[in-house]
Each structure stands twice: as C-alpha cells, then as structure tokens.
Amino acid sequence: MANKQASITTIATHLGLAVSTVSRALSDHANIREDTKERVRQMALKLNYQPNHLAAGLRKGHSGILGVVVPHISGYFFPTVMHGIEKMASKAGFHVMLCQSNEDVKQERANLKMLLNAQVEGILISMSSTTHDYQHFEKVQNKGIPLVFFDRMPDLPTTNAVVLDDHQGAFGVVKHLVEQGCKRIAFFSGPQHLNINKNRFEGYVDALESFGLRLDPELVFQLPNLSKAAGAEGMNLLLQLDSPPDAVFSSYDMPAVGALEVLQERNIRVPHDIALSGFSNEPFTTLIWPRLTSVEQRGELMGEAAVRLFLQMHKRTDNYSPQRIMLKPQLEVRGSSLRNQ
Questions:
Q1: What is the rounded CA–CA span in Å between residue 89 and residue 87?
Q2: DSSP string, 10-39
Q3: Contact indicator for 99, 114 with CB cutoff of 8 Å
C-alpha cells in the first residue's frame, strides 16, 4: 500500500540501502550506478514519495518563498493585487505565502515574525490601518530581507514601495465634479495616518483650491469604518446642514453605496440633485443604479510591480537605492456623477 508520508529513510529501509545513497540517487548523482538509481525511483514511485523542496532549498541557502501580508482578503482590491503577485512570482520561480493582519498591528507583527521564521526570501506588505509604530518593519530591513510595501506604506526614509497616485486620483474626481457644475463637494475621508487617505484628502483640498472653491470643514466627514452604514451616517449628517452638498466624493466605494441608498430613500435625484463618486472601482459599482463613478486602482499591475521591485532588490548590489513606483489612476465616469450628457 502506498505511504503518503514516505520519506527517504522509508525508501532506504525497503531497499536495504544507506539514506545517503538514496538521497544521491534521487538527485541523479554521478557516483550512483544507474541500476541503483532505477531501483530507488521505482520504490519512490511505489511508496508515493514526495520530495520536500522547501527543506532542499533551505539546505542550499534559499527557500524560494515570497511572503505577503495584506490587511484583509475580502472585497476586490487585495485579491486583485494577489493575482498579480502570484502570477509574477510564479514566473520568477517563487512560491507565495499569504498572511492577513485583519487590520490589527499585533497580528501584523506576528505575521512578519512567522514569515521570518519560515526563512522567506522577501516580504511584500500593505500595512494595517492600526499600525502607527514601524519597528517591526525596521527589524525586517535590518536583517537584510527585501521588504516592499504596496498601496499602504509607512513614512520611512528607506522604503521601497509600489503605490497609486492617490492625490491625482482624488484631484481628477473633484475636477470632473466641478465640470459637471458642482460647487459644494463633500468628502468622506478615511484615517489620515494612512498614506492613501492622506493623499486622497490632499488631492481633494488641492482641487478645490485650484478651481476657486472654499474648503468647508462641515462638508468633510471622517468615516468610522469603510462600511455602507458609515456612508449612510455621513450622508444623513450632510443632509441636515443648512446648505447641503451638491456632490459627495467618498474615498472608498462601499460608503458611497450607503450614501446612495439614503438619497434614494429620500427621493433625492442622483446625480441631478447630488452627484456621487467613490474610489477603488469595485465590481459592484457597475451593478447598482445609477452606476457609480469611481477611480480604478490597478490592483493587478500593482501586484506585478511589487514582485518586480522585490526581484530587483533580491539581486541588488551594495549601492542599491530605495525605489518608489507610482501607478497612474484612471477615472471611470458613470451615471452617478454625469450631469452633462
């Protein structure tokens, strides 16, 4: 009967050979006779022997594993990034070990510790929303392990990262809304310690200034989370203002859906009374009505670029300089904001 847990020792016992002889035979060593190699191969096949490539790689000084840490694997963006990472890593001969921090810095630290113990050859990470201290990242860098951030990154001087130009993406949304005749543009903002939210907010502010519109603090709603309920809460608060907005730009798509539902329940026309836009271009943006204007984050390209950057670091020389790759966003204009048709 085949033994699924068969090892080199098992093969050696069945054939009455030394373990070292079996190991060399399986590696096609020149010092092992061909008839012995054939006997070993046949017994390995009979016992369903599976070689441990990880252990072999570690003996040679490399694991062939690329570690990846994401805040979560739900939604559309991070799975899309993972598709790009796995596709590019596979082409380069690396296996991917995926971890989730679940937006918890303690879990993020545990993820990095586990990946280091697994002797990964590099780590790609998008940091959690609760990360404020960066010592665990510096620990990885100090060990000489290539560390590449994607989407979310810390403010460290030697950071290698692949990010979207979130500032340009937000600026483009406001520009579009102004061109549609909007003058009081509200903004749903995420936690400002995260680079993506900080840059999106700054893009919003800079666009208002560029088009001669005043920044009204009453029109900025800090999202408590990225849920539909949070967007509904923000929309209800905005509608209570003496001068409600004529447009709402959400830094994420899901809260924009919550805002849309509130407006539809109150028979407020979208986009004629209040225009809407999100950010991320989740698949559901084309399934609601009106379809939601949003910014494409190019997740797959981001994943591919992160692996390419890791590969450059993996082969780096002593004079390697940190790189920051910035991808260009793309505004997908749809019915929720398109007044001028």
A1: 6
A2: HHHHHHT--HHHHHHHHTT-TTS-HHHHHH
A3: yes
Query: Tens digits of per-residue pLDDT, 164-218?
Result: 999 999 999 999 999 999 999 999 999 999 999 999 999 999 999 999 999 999 9
What are the CA-CA distances from residue 290 to residues 66, 164, 169, 204, 269 (Å)?
41, 26, 21, 23, 10
CA 48 to chain centroid, in Å, comes to 38
Mean pLDDT lowest among 46-50, 137-141, 265-269: 46-50
Q: Return d(Cα 88, Cα 31) in angstroms, integer.
A: 38
Name the burial class of residue 34, with classes exposed (0-12), middle (13-18) and buried (19+) by CB atoms within 10 angstroms of its CB: exposed
What is the band of 1 on the pLDDT scale with cuts at 50, 70, 90? very low
Cα distances (angstroms) measured from residue 238 to each of 26, 219, 220, 228: 70, 7, 9, 15
Contacts by 57-65, CB closer than 8 A, 24 or more apart = 58/119, 62/121, 63/118, 63/119, 63/120, 63/121, 64/93, 64/94, 64/95, 64/121, 65/94, 65/95, 65/96, 65/97, 65/118, 65/119, 65/120, 65/121
* ∠ Cα 156 301 100 (to 5°): 60
- Rounded to two decimals, the pTM is 0.83
Which residues contact residue 324 at a Cβ distance below 8 angstroms, ignoring those fewer than 6 apart?
A: 159, 160, 161, 162, 163
Residue 261: pLDDT band with limits 50, 70, 90: very high
Q: Locate tokens 């340009």: which residue?
A: 168
Examine the pLDDT at 2 and tell me if it is beyond 50.
no
Distance CA 175, CA 183 (A): 11
Longest dimension (CA), the chain: 91
